[in-house]
Amino acid sequence: MKPNYYTVEQMLEMIDEPNRTACFRILSENRKLFQTVQGSTNNHQNWHGGYFDHVQEIMNIVIVLYELINSIRPQPFSLSDVLLVVFLHDIEKPWKYEMATDGQFQHIESLRTKDAQHEFRAKKLKEYGVLLTPEQKNGMKYVEGELNDYTNRRRVMGPLAALCHLADVTSARIWFNHPMEQNDPWPNARRIRD
Tell me: the pLDDT tens digits for 3-60? Predict the structure, then answer.
């Protein structure tokens, strides 16, 4: 039996307060933008509204991964923690693109670097009153991998970040074209239309 495929709203309800309210506010105030921009320019969920679809997809994936891994060995973090990180992990994306003269989305120059994107993300989270624990901050920083911070002298990416990274890689590199427009094999998975 396949697991349930939840809506973003259903999954935000699974996030603990006070961040649940902040996340609902982010969604409410930016839904139209979220359902307009692509998930990426080329590599995953690169259709109109793909950003929203990627967020919903990664949240569903992380629930499945968390429940499986936590059933084998209890984790030192909660489902709420992983859902918070993956909901917010790309929060800068809707603002980092602009429409080019050829009708395609392109990166805004000021948000081209990872450092600039992380700074924008931090400001956006502060604007909405999102409060992160040190582990959640680590998750936000390394959800896309350790990149240039990798060292063999210490563990950089924490367990929460690693699980969120697995979900992000699954969505962006395995199921990059999901949810499908029609007949997605995961029951109730569907692309959002604005």
Answer: 999 999 999 999 999 999 999 999 999 999 999 888 777 778 887 888 899 999 999 9
The pTM score is 0.92
- Answer whether 59's CB lies under 8 Å from 86's CB: yes
Asked if residue 53 lies in contact with residue 151, where contact means CB atoms within 8 angstroms, the answer is: no
Q: What are phi and psi of 155, to 5 degrees?
A: -80, 125
d(CA 26, CA 113): 23
Q: Which residue has the tokens 């996030």?
A: 15
Q: Peptide bond preceding 179: is omega within 30 degrees of 0, i.e. cis?
A: yes
- Weakest-pLDDT range from 78-82, 91-95, 190-194: 190-194
CA atoms of 63 and 76, how far apart (whole Å): 15
Query: What domains sit in the chain, N to C, each tagged with a CATH number?
Result: 8-174 (1.10.3210)
- Are residues 57 and 178 in contact, defined by beta-carbon separation less than 8 angstroms? yes
What would the DSSP string read from start to end of 43-80? Answer: SSS-STTHHHHHHHHHHHHHHHHHHHHHHHS--SS-HH
Give the CA distances from residue 176 to residues 50, 55, 74, 147, 173, in Å, rounded to whole numbers and listed in that order: 10, 12, 29, 21, 5
Task: Give the model's pLDDT for residue 194.
Answer: 52
